[in-house]
Each structure stands twice: as C-alpha cells, then as structure tokens.
Amino acid sequence: MATEYGVFEDGACIEAGFHGEIGKAAAEAHMADLVAAEPGMADAYEVDEICPDHDEQPKNGCEECADEESEDDTEDRDGRS
Ligand SMILES: [Zn+2]
C-alpha cells in the first residue's frame, strides 16, 4: 500500500489522501498554494507522512499510537498509586 501524505498546519492535519510519490508532490504543491496565499504562515505548514493506522495523524508523533503504547502499562497498574 502506498504511503499516504497529508498537509499539516501547526501539527494538525488539514488535507489528507495524498498517496505515493505523486501524492507527496501534490501535497507539496497544495502546501505551496497555502503559503502563497498566506506567506506569513509558511512556517506553520508542512507535508508529512500519515500514520498507517490512524487517519489525520502524522506517522512520526502520532498521538493515537502514543496512547496505545501507554495503555500497555495497565497490565501492572496494581503496583501504582
Ligand atoms: Zn497511529
């Protein structure tokens, strides 16, 4: 399955559904349009890979995946206060 890319604004996905290398190029072109419309926002936008398991989450730093990993700790929760 092709890698999915999305356009993010301040870490929040605003456009997704860009698949593969062609999709990445399309996402970058879309981002360029956004930056052209609002040059002051250039630093807020970025193209990143989408998490393969969760829509609209960046592959690196997916909050949903981070939550799932932390849930593994419930097995030994008896020792916690
Ligand atoms: Zn995820």
Q: Which descriptors apply to this entry?
A:
81 residues, alpha+beta, binds zinc ion
User: Which regions contain 5 or more consecutive residues with pLDDT less than 50?
Assistant: none
Portion in beta strands = 15-25%
User: What is the count of β-strands?
Assistant: 3
Q: Report the biggest beta sheet as strand number plus sense, adding barrel if it closes.
A: 3 strands, antiparallel
Bound molecules: zinc ion
CA-based shape: flat
Structural category = alpha+beta
Q: What is the mean predicted local confidence, pLDDT? A: 90
Q: What is the string of SSEs from the N terminus onward?
A: EEHEH
Instruction: Provide the gyration radius in Å.
Output: 16 Å
Number of separate structural domains: 1
Indicate the percent of residues in helices: 25-40%
Q: Count the helices. How many?
A: 2
For the termini, the CA-CA separation is: 43 Å
If strands are numbered along the chain, what order do they take across the biggest sheet? Answer: 2-1-3
Give structural notes.
With 81 residues, this protein is of the alpha+beta class. The protein has one domain (4-75). Helix content is 33%, strand content 23%. The chain is built from 2 helices and 3 strands; from the N terminus they run ββαβα. A 3-stranded antiparallel beta sheet has the order 2-1-3, covered by helices on one side. A hairpin with a 2-residue loop joins strand 1 (4-9) and strand 2. The model has no long low-confidence stretch (mean pLDDT 90). Residues 51, 53-54, 57, 62, 64-65 line the site of zinc ion (ZN).
